């Protein structure tokens, strides 16, 4: 009979994972706010250059609202330590990176900032996500 040896979770790892959850929630709220602005006023965002991915700003608005809502739900789910929440959070952060890359012509500095946050979220959840599960007891 083999016994599974468990070690105490690292406080730093749990802190990094909780920070990733908070950043994901804040990023999701910001995505949704960007989307609402894009839906409400088409003239707010102006394209800086001609890029391959050009949609109507209203379309981008709906994309941002949907990605933002899913990111907020995944971020809230991360506090429970559920595996589905970690999986969904990594997937939605990856989608957010793609969306913000395509959104670069409209709001370049903001897009680069959110891309960096999303990379942090993916790193934190893939490297330290199991520690939250150990703390929550699931």
Automatic annotation (TrEMBL):
Domain DUF7144: from-to ranges:
17-130
Q: Which Pfam families match?
A: DUF7144
The domain of life for this entry's organism is Bacteria
The answer, when asked if Hydrolase is one of the entry's keywords, is no
The cross-references to InterPro entries, in alphabetical order and at most eight, read: DUF7144
Q: Which segments cross the bilayer?
A: 12-37, 57-76, 109-128
Coiled coil regions, renumbered to chain:
none
Alphabetically sorted, this entry's keywords are: Membrane, Transmembrane, Transmembrane helix
Its recorded name reads DUF7144 domain-containing protein
Instruction: Please tell me the species this chain comes from.
Output: Nakamurella multipartita (strain ATCC 700099 / DSM 44233 / CIP 104796 / JCM 9543 / NBRC 105858 / Y-104) (Microsphaera multipartita)
């Amino acid at each position: 009979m083999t016994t599974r040896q468990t070690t105490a979770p690292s406080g730093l790892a749990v802190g990094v994972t909780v920070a990733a959850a908070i950043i994901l929630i804040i990023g999701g709220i910001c995505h949704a706010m960007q989307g609402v602005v894009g839906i409400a006023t088409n003239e707010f965002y102006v394209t800086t250059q001609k890029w391959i991915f050009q949609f109507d700003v209203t379309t981008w608005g709906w994309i941002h609202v949907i990605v933002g809502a899913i990111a907020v739900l995944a971020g809230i789910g991360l506090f429970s330590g559920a595996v589905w929440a970690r999986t969904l959070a990594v997937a939605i952060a990856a989608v957010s990176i793609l969306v913000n890359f395509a959104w670069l012509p409209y709001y370049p500095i903001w897009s680069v900032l959110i891309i960096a946050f999303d990379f942090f979220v993916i790193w934190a959840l893939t490297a330290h996500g199991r520690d939250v599960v150990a703390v929550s007891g699931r």
